[in-house]
Amino acid sequence: MRWSYVLRRVLQVVPALGMILVVTFVVMHLAPGDPARAFAGEYATEETIEALRKQYGVDRPMWSQFTTYAGNLLRGDFGTSFSYGRPVTSIIAERLPATLLLATTALLVSVTAGILMGTLAARRPAGFLDRGINVAALLMYAVPGFWLAQIALLVLGLRAGLVPVLGMTDTRIEYSGVHRVLDVAHHLALPALVLAASEIALVLRLTRTGLIEQLGQNYTRTAEAKGLSSTAVLARHALPNAAIPLITVVGTRVGFLFSGAVVIETVFSWPGVGLLLVDAANSGDRPMALGLVVLVAVSVLAANLITDLVYARVDPRIRYD
Questions:
Q1: CATH code assigned at 286
Q2: What is the domain range of residue 261?
Q3: Is residue 282 part of a domain?
């Protein structure tokens, strides 16, 4: 892989991020409502509201606000939250680990379960197991995440009592060490499975289709003719080649996991950036909402960039000029 290609791909991220920032900034400032009035409360005087507008700079023209915000952003300053009165970066830093834990767990679950189920389905296409797995994949992909989250919460949490229904830890007992890890894992299980459901179905279908195609190629038949078992042919030859397209799909789905985490965190009261984004939108906290949008945009663009580079590294047939 040539370093010129890597540099060119990195430079392509800059205008994309700039366009996302401009569009998001304009949309948020065209939205109805006065953030200073919402922050001050319904009983605040006009003098107080005007003072808040000047304090946060929302009394200036939009272009002036944007240039100031963009300049501060280049220095790593995301502004001050209207609601919390603290730097946006510090608040996001407190909430980001929870979202990363949820999204990373969902990603690992979706890739592992999807590949295993897709491999089982591909071993005997049109068989009983294949049909059952396909039906399960269709249901997982078709059911909306917010509906599945609420049903899982009601059935497995409230009625069966198998998993906690809210939060990241038990608020009644202060655990430490291994017990705290187990407590977080217990609270994490259901949100991560719900978030991973549609991704499992996608990875499953791609794995199944890719394996069926690879198992019909001449090189796999030659390997079987040389005495390799069907399991060895699948594991050593068919699966690595079928997994190459998965790299692209999994990499591009990182952004969907972050966007899906907004819904899941809201339903399960998971204290991550998704719940923070909902609160910022409801309260009109523009600096917080903009900071979170920038964070998600950078994550998606970085995931796509890394996916392109890894794809070129894994598949030696690809050459970039």
A1: 1.10.3720.10
A2: 88-314
A3: yes
d(CA 142, CA 34): 39
Q: Give φ, ψ of 212 to 5 degrees.
A: -60, -40
pLDDT digits (tens, 9 = 90+) for 168-216: 888 777 778 888 888 889 889 999 999 998 889 889 988 898 888 888 8
Sign, CA dihedral 44-45-48-53, equals positive
Query: Does the CA dihedral 161-165-171-177 come out positive or negative?
Result: positive
Tell me how many domains the chain contains: 1
**Which distant-in-sequence residues (6+ apart) come within 8 Å of 142 by Cβ?**
none
Amino acid at 261: A
- Specify whether the CB–CB gap between 203 and 118 falls below 8 A: yes
Buried b (16+ CB within 10 A) or exposed e, 121-138: bbbeeeeeebeebbebbe
Nearest to 192 by CA among 154, 152, 232: 152
- Alpha carbon separation from 142 to 107, 146, 189 (Å, rounded): 19, 12, 21
Could you tell me if residue 175 is inside a domain? yes
pTM, two decimal places: 0.82
